[in-house]
Amino acid sequence: QVQLVESGGGLVQPGGSLRLSCTASGFPFSTAAMSWYRRAPGQVREFVARSFRGGSKTNYADSVKGRFTISRDNAKNTVWLQMNSLNPDDTAVYYCTAHTQNAVDYWGQGTQVTVSS
Predict the structure, then answer these.
(1) 96: which of 21, 32, 86, 108 fits an S-S bond (Cβ 3.0–4.6 Å)?
(2) Nearest-CA neighbor of 114 among 56, 41, 6?
């Protein structure tokens, strides 16, 4: 059974930081591309960051580049999203996703991030 379990969301003031975690099971994690997406209220879901399989290559949405960092530990089946310099536009539900070598996509349940003073 595939599981992606996110944690680390919460309420933070503008300018603050949060670190999201996603622990995966049920598929070969090290060969999957791991990504974070988000959906803000009333908005479509958007790409945030990706760690390609192996973890040596990453890419980011322009809106988070320089502020967010994606990292992974294949031994722990875990991917993180370090979010710095948060602003209210970053308020959203953040989803961890896996894209396997068999071209199957899995999604976590999401974790709420709220940036507000």
Answers:
(1) 108
(2) 41
pLDDT in tens, 29-71: 999 999 999 999 999 999 999 999 877 899 999 999 999 999 9
For residue 39, what are the contacts with CB-CB under 8 A and spacing of at least 6?
Answer: 45, 46, 92, 93, 95, 110
Question: Tokens 């979010």 label which residue?
Answer: 83
Measure Cα distances from 41 to 68, 74, 79, 99, 105 in Å.
20, 32, 24, 25, 23
pLDDT digits 0-9 by tens, 69-100: 999 999 999 999 999 999 999 999 999 999 99
Cβ atoms of 90 and 113 within 8 Å: the answer is yes
C-alpha 43/C-alpha 22 separation (Å) is 23
- Whole-number pLDDT of residue 25: 96
**12 bridge partner residues:** 115
Short-list 81, 47, 42, CA closest to 61 = 47
